[in-house]
């Protein structure tokens, strides 16, 4: 036994660790940093004798039932107690743990409830693991004061509802895992305050409804998973509030691809990130189709969805446009409009490339006209000045292009017919000169002979 202990100490020293001889039975303890490892020993309670200066405590894969005040010291930085049988945590267990950064209570399936002040005062907490804890609800202020928290794991519980502002204090949260619960709705202020959130995982819930303002604070969100829920529709305006979004998963929902899906369809057409398929399950003629692959003609008799890009870019009778576009100013009213483009370096236009000239139905004329104007504007700034000629929609629904878009090309040489005529004239003149010289030479030669 002594030899085994010496061998273990030698190995720990080789790893840069110093063995601590004050250690609970069946545990391994060492210093620099001070660590207690008591994992997988079938402990029913937190073992006694944990050194009070322990910074890292590993108690995972045991059978511990209760956590009480005094089990650990306030010097603890990392505390892992996942995969136990915890059913009760005394509210004051972690009070005063101002150095705690990583707390893993996950996979304690019979925990089921937590006191409101369980985590209060953990000002340095960076990661909190509460996955698979049998939680059916969360107290209102359970995350109060956790302003340094970056990772919150709440997946695979039984949560059905999230209160407004429950994450309000989590200013630095970057990852929020809520998948595998029983959530059925996302309200306007469910995620209020999460301005640093990067990833939001909501898949494998029962979500039927998402408020159109639900994501209004998530300006940095890059990843949103909503697959495998019960969503029939989702507002495009809701997703418009995610300017940094790169990855979106919407598959395995019972999407209804009728007029209610028009705003989502328009948003998907504009989105440049990665998306999953959006399989239609209604109406009957759309079953099996992907909403992303549909065309405008697949939405007959559907008016343009409010707050969509089409409405944002289309000027109304007062000549105003969506100010968020911040690209051009439309002046005038009705059909007489002129667009003033902010000054910027002009770019050359490729005048040889053919452009599509498609006829649109009456209900889409104004939208088509606006998109053509915006596309043209992006290519050349010199074309858009007051008094210039612009595209207009004719009564028959045909978009008429404005004239003289491109600057005249510099003439490199005359047309071929003119060039050939000029060449012939030059040759004829040269032959006349040669003939005159030849005649003069002959005359001179003959004269000399006669003398």
Automatic annotation (TrEMBL):
Compartment(s): Cell membrane; Cell projection; Membrane raft; Membrane
Predominant location: membrane
Biased composition range(s): Basic residues: 346-359
Compositional bias segments (type: Polar residues): 301-327
PROSITE patterns the UniProt entry points to: LRR
Region (Disordered) location: 298-421
Record keywords, A-Z: Cell membrane, Cell projection, Glycoprotein, Leucine-rich repeat, Lipoprotein, Membrane, Receptor, Repeat, Signal, Transmembrane, Transmembrane helix
Signal peptide: 1-22
UniProt entry tagged with the keyword Transmembrane helix: yes
GO cellular component, one term: cell projection
Pfam family, one: LRR_8
Nucleotidyltransferase keyword on record: no
Biased composition (Basic and acidic residues): 360-394
Annotated TM spans: 431-450
Topology term for the membrane: Lipid-anchor
Family: Belongs to the Nogo receptor family.
The protein's name in its UniProt record: Reticulon 4 receptor-like 1b
Species per Swiss-Prot/TrEMBL record: Takifugu rubripes (Japanese pufferfish)
Taxonomic path: Eukaryota, Metazoa, Chordata, Craniata, Vertebrata
